[in-house]
Design brief:
5 domains, Immunoglobulin-like, 11 helices, 20 strands, alpha+beta, five-stranded mixed β-sheet, six-stranded mixed β-sheet
């Protein structure tokens, strides 16, 4: 029998045809509610009959019926009550806060329990009054802390340019929007990260036999799939951990605090929410209100001079200076040839007339034109440490020559621009790419090229050597 049939141009499955027999569907929430009523009714009946059997003297029947009543009530409480509680409007108010019990709160609750037991056993009215006052203090503490946190507005201002290894300052602004009520003892914190969500997925693997042998000694390999827990998304690194403490905010007042940020590695750092926490007024609980406020920082690679940078910079400057000689626009003079001059600057007409070697000397251009090229290697071409060193060297050279008297441009596989900050942002999130190289696709220009590449020396086109300086990082 086919799984589906056609009728009047519409396709119905077996499940659809079965549901058409019912005029309506009962929502799941009502099913759970009715089952909860049924379970509680059975528990009440069992408890009622256990009372009857106890009066008749049947101990075993009383024990069985009482146990059934207790188990049914616990089962309904664990399965139905949380499900229903999540769907009421009050749940949204509770979900806006997080609670952490302090050590003082634990001691206080133990004292409340001890006094409550003593009051029940002795029937002393003074103990009941003390117990009521202590419970009222817990209630007042929760209401007051929630009232304080509800009236606060938060703003976080992060710096625009941040370098790895260099401290930067962020600014946190906290404002009390209430007209008459001040605010006491508030911390701006980084909210606790939720657990990385995982899901069971079929992952492609390889089945090898015998399993304990090395791959060379195994008899055969077959494609296989295994059911594993896979993380749906990698955890993000927060911008700052906090806390930042504000002891007092006047009504309609605003305070600011400077926060020192320091990132060890380049990359994109994003934080999607912050927290406002307080222990006010009695420090029984640390109540935290989550504030949805997304901030992100692109951390540039470190531009601090390294030993490799100090080694290559004089060589690069020397190459640029020697290449700049003779590349000017106008002739300055013709002079005698020296051993330091290049043969391509020899003026053969003047040499033939004078009988001695003469060279042409041109005026030097006012500004140097440079192009820094980062040839992003493919995945696995070099180690991660060498790759990070290459990225850091490219960033250091870009930052150095951008501050010099030079016209600098930047190029990579997916980048071609003259803005140094855009280039540093590109290097901040760059990862090893495919096998394509940027060297063959470089447009022809009169700029001097500084090429950072992991390619072998023999694979670089020889035409580029005359106007380029290569840094091989492989």
């Amino acid at each position: 029998m086919p799984a589906s049939v056609k009728s009047s141009g519409r396709r119905f499955s077996k499940t659809d045809r079965g549901l058409r027999a019912f005029p309506f569907q009962i929502p799941e929430i009502w099913v759970r509610f009715l089952l909860a009523l049924l379970g509680l009714g059975l528990a009440f009946a069992a408890a009622l009959f256990s009372t009857v059997t106890r009066e008749s003297g049947n101990v075993w029947a009383t024990f069985i019926l009482g146990s059934m009543a207790l188990l049914l009530a616990v089962f309904v409480g664990l399965t139905t009550v949380p499900y229903l509680a999540r769907r009421v409007a009050v749940a949204r108010l509770r979900d806006a806060f997080e609670y952490d019990v302090t050590r003082a709160g634990i001691i206080y609750v133990v004292a409340v329990v001890v006094i409550g037991i003593a009051a029940l056993n002795t029937g002393n009215n003074l103990l009941y009054i003390i117990l009521a006052a202590m419970l009222a203090a817990i209630l007042c503490s929760g209401v007051a802390s929630a009232f304080v946190l509800r009236g606060l507005e938060l703003d976080v201002r992060v710096p625009e340019h941040v370098f790895a290894g260099r401290p930067a300052m962020a600014r946190i602004l906290l404002r009390n929007s209430r007209r008459w009520v001040p605010v006491f003892s508030v911390n701006v914190v980084s909210v606790r990260k939720s657990a990385v969500r995982k899901k069971w997925r079929w992952v492609p693997t390889t089945f090898s036999f015998p399993a304990r042998r090395t791959p060379e000694k195994q008899w055969f390999h077959l494609p296989d799939r295994q059911l594993r827990l896979v993380a749906l998304e990698p955890p993000r690194s927060d911008i700052f951990q906090g806390p930042v403490y504000f002891p007092y905010l006047a009504p309609r007042g605003e305070q600011a605090a400077e926060v020192k940020l320091c990132f060890e590695r380049r990359g994109l750092h994003q934080q999607e929410s912050f927290g406002l926490a307080t222990r006010f007024p009695f420090a029984f609980l640390v109540k935290t209100r989550r504030v949805a406020l997304t901030r992100q920082i692109i951390v540039y690679p470190s531009v601090e001079p390294t030993d490799e940078f100090f080694e290559v910079l004089p060589l690069i400057n020397g190459e640029i200076e020697s290449s700049a000689q003779g590349r000017g626009a106008s002739l300055y003079r013709i002079r005698e040839y020296t051993s330091e001059d290049s043969a391509r600057h020899v003026d053969w007409k003047a040499t033939a007339k004078s009988g001695s070697l003469k060279v042409r000397e041109f005026t030097r251009e006012d500004q140097r034109k440079l192009r820094i090229v980062f040839d992003n290697p493919p995945t696995g071409a070099i180690t991660e440490e060498k790759y990070e060193n290459a990225v850091g060297l490219a960033a250091s050279l870009a930052w150095h020559f951008a501050g010099e008297d030079a016209q600098v441009s930047f190029a990579s596989q997916d980048f071609n621009n003259r803005d140094v900050h855009r280039y540093l942002s590109h290097l901040a999130v760059i990862r090893p790419s495919g096998p394509a190289s940027v060297i063959e696709s470089l447009p022809i220009s009169d700029e001097y090229n500084i090429v950072i590449t992991a390619r072998q020396r023999g694979t670089v086109p020889t035409l580029l050597w005359a106007c380029s300086y290569f840094l091989f990082v492989g």
